[in-house]
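Q: What would this chain look like folded?
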Amino acid sequence: MKKKAIIVIGCSQLQIPIMQAAKKIGFSILLTDSNPNSPGIKFCDEFKNIGGNNVEALKDFASENLELYEILSVYCGSDFGLIALAEIADFLKIGGPSINSVEVALDKFKSKELFLENNIPTPKGRLITKNDSLQLADFTFPLIVKPTDGSGSRGVQYVKDRKSTRLNSSHQ
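A: My prediction, written as structure tokens:
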């Protein structure tokens, strides 16, 4: 009988509790991380040094472990590996988010368009690319500028007034 397992893509200190909880209920942990000294290594059953965006290597890792393990789930505690999570879940036919839904969720502008198309209340917004010239008359200050990709508060800028409109290079 194969051991029940989950694949964990990336492990910082924040992911250790989920790994401990999975181990406590009898799951084996198949861990991948770009950090060869990942803090999760001591909690896993199998480890491979793979980054969360290397989908083909992650699929190979899953395939390599199918003989010993019944892989029931894929987990990633951050946005960096969510596309890989969706692709691996699809590859293993174990259910999970669709690749398209992850792509939309990771793209703030696509999400905003989808919300508006479906009459979901959403704050006003406008896509500005690096090549656009800012038409300051079109904006009401203060405002928040966010990159279209990423999560949390990475790249978010508060623009107080017209004098402080220089955007950093992380914005499209």
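Residues 168-172 have pLDDT under 50 and may be disordered.
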